[in-house]
Amino acid sequence: YVMFSHAWQGKEPLFQDVSIVKSVWNLPKAPLNEKLRNFCKETQGLGHKWAWSDTCCIDKASNSILNQSLMSMYKWYADSAPVKTPGDLMCSFWMTRAWTLQELLALKVIYFYDSEWKPYLNDTGKNHKESLEIMQELTNAIKIPLKTITTFTLDDLKVRDKLRLASTHHVMVDEDAAYSLIGIFKSNIRPHYGEGADSLGHLLEEIV
């Protein structure tokens, strides 16, 4: 399966939206639905049968499914085939969102695309993690060492170093500061949106 790493831009198609029409190809014509369809087309073009997007592959109306997904996310990225990031996403703002840290570190193969779904910098190689030019641009933008991005494993860095990486990333809600790090720290804390900043305390307590 191919994972989709992207910035939410508004009313993205949800699990319920796709369930009603039975297929992403049957969704109404709209820019965000087209983004999802383009991702599926690119996935097919690479010869893969399954495409995964957090917007519509997680039933967020179910707390148990959402919690299981959040706790499994790092492994899902690590076990996936190529990860695709569409649009103008080399900007430092998107790359410093909390959830993108685990996406960048866990995956083995990644492709960056421009807003027209063309390979970033016209690089048609098999893995943009092997492109020194793209990785150097990414390193300059998000201030994470190139080697950390390209060769990271869960046991590479000490706790302090992982926390330092995480401190450079931004969250939209307080809880994501902790929940986005569950996989990186091999944590078993149970996500519970509503606990606010206490979530980070629970994560640090378990780490200690």
Automatic annotation (TrEMBL):
Heterokaryon incompatibility domain sequence ranges: 1-81
Superkingdom of origin: Eukaryota
InterPro entries: HET
Protein's recorded name: Heterokaryon incompatibility domain-containing protein
